[in-house]
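The freezer alarm interrupted the setup, so I double-checked each line after restarting. Inputs confirmed:
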Amino acid sequence: MKRKTGGKVSRRDFLKGAAVGGAALAGGGIPFIARMAHAKAGVIKYGTMHPLTGTYSALGTDQRNATQLAVEEWNAKGGVLGNKIEWVHRDDQLNGAVALRRVKELVEEEKCDFIGGTLSGAISLAINEFANKNKIPYVAYCQSDMVLGTDQGKYGFAFMVIPYSAALATSKYAFENLGKKWFSLTADYRWGHSLLEGWMWQSQQMGGQFLGNVYHPLGATDYSTYLTKIMAANPEVLVMNNLGGDQTAAIKQMSELGLTKKMKIVCTKTAMTTLKECGAAYDENIMGGMTFYWGLKDKYPGAKKFMDTYMKKFGQPIEQDGESGYVATNALFMAMEKAKTVTDKEKIVAAMEGLKYTLTKGPETVRACDHQREQSYLLVRGRGKNAKGWDLADIVAEIPGNSIIMSCEDNAKKLPFSQIKLP
Amino acid sequence: MFSDINWTVFFMQLFFGLALGSIFVLLASGLSIIYGLLDVVNFAHGTFAMLGAYAVFVAVSLSGSFAVGIASAVVIVALLGVAIELFLLKPLYGKDPLLPLLLTFGLSIAVPDLVKIVFGLTGKPVDYPAALGGATIVGPVILSNYRLFIIVFTLAILISLWLFLKKSDLGMIIRAATRDSLMVQILGTNTSGIWTIGFAIGTGLAALAGAIAVPMLAATPDMGVEMTMVAFVVTVVGGLGSLGGAIVGGLLIGVIVAFTSLIAGEYSSVAMYFCMAVILLIRPRGLFGESGRE
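Predicted 3D structure, all chains:
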């Protein structure tokens, strides 16, 4: 019989609708309308991609803001060698296929000569491949394996630590200060696996005792169900190899179940958004790794200048993924000045290799052998109920870059981590 | 793989599964009522849950009480449901049945963006209520008090809902309208108001699910996507438009997710879709679905 709608929604319609809607929610968006542009003389065209929609939009927005700040600062002092910088950016939706379409738009339609950005290691690998095929310098803002061996290529540069370095830094601190018996909760995808490899390798070197690991799918919401395994293992250190909403939910539920009173939790990479979203649950028993925390402004004048300008313009402190974008953008323009050209890409790439600068932390360099920014890694501790505003964590250690970066030879061969057998 | 399982682990896992399933039950029963009564495939269901989570955040920030938070979440979101039904859904009745689906789909994209503008991109935390902290120990089994609360609270809500639908006059009209709204109309009842109330109850239940889940997660603008998915899976497994189906389906999926986490953690999310596929193959109308709705 008929009801108020023109016809009954049948079970098939319901399922069809759900499928179409689901697909659209998962990967959709509004098609981009192309705009034609032409390269102009006296203008440097720099194009970037960031996930401005979806789960990581907060981090993507940081990246965009940081790039904007760097470009404005350079333009305010007259551009690079007298050339104005024209910057365009796109939303890559944290989706590899979308990112590839966007980078083609940036290069073919917007006529960008230099590209940067992205938040996902996997996407940066795809962009790096495209950049190398088209001989366009690319500065990656995110943790990525693209500096390793065959993935590397001549035109790509990585401004975040590689996952292994993050794992080396946090595990070294944990084994020295918190305990040697560890258990891990790992997001089941390439990045999580890389972190676990790093921990396992370090554990072998430092006599750690690996009690086990559980993998969880990306976007899992209930972590209590993993609790029984963790409690049975009873480690001194529980390692979290995950990020974002996964980490927030895991920490909140571990704290609900009283686990933070029984063991220390160490997040190989954590973020201010996570600290903020966890609230009081991110207490002093929880530590996390970061390449940058705004509290560094008390230590480095460069960090203070950067944070003061950024806070004034955008009203809140920046995350590590944004900071790496700021450094990457600056390094690109510094390399142009060093090479004394804004057009000769070969010379700019050569100038980038071995580039030395001091910007937001101590003195740093872009290694010539693998195009990786050599930088320190921080360990922060939560403040729980004492957190106020953006004062969310205390820096407990800054681990120097040269102690956690792999040797050029090892990097080229993806050693020693490729020898680790994951559970 | 199975050697880790003993009775203690089994009961703890079952408990966690039932707690998770309770949230699914609340989500799915709301979706089921809306579908059963209005024939609307509510793609914004998780979005209402997300709004419930944010309402708790605001109310707890202002009042400091989690109970006030839950109550405000239900009232605010149900009222919003009323407004949406009256002004956006009603004009679409009698037209293509896919139009309400498109409308709710649009809401599921637009509302999170509005929330981002109002509350920012970073999620908002809600702490566990102090009275429900800690754990109850029953022999070797440790039960989190908050999860116990979730199970008991959901049970109380379901009993109230059942009493309302079975015993009250309005409940009876709603049940009748679910079966045959034309006949109810002919008998002289204003079904238009019934649909509004049904939509409000459905969105209120979604808000409740978001509200009790928020201390375990955080209120984030995009949390609704996952919740919509779960609600749909549970509804398909339990049977479209069936309240009993939503309850059994929700608990079943919760328990399946919990035990999959124990045996092969990486497949815990896939498990519910696998369960849905199996149910669709052997019993396409779901466990409790009406046979007419093929």
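Quick read of the result. Chain A touches chain B through 58 residues (CB under 8 Å).
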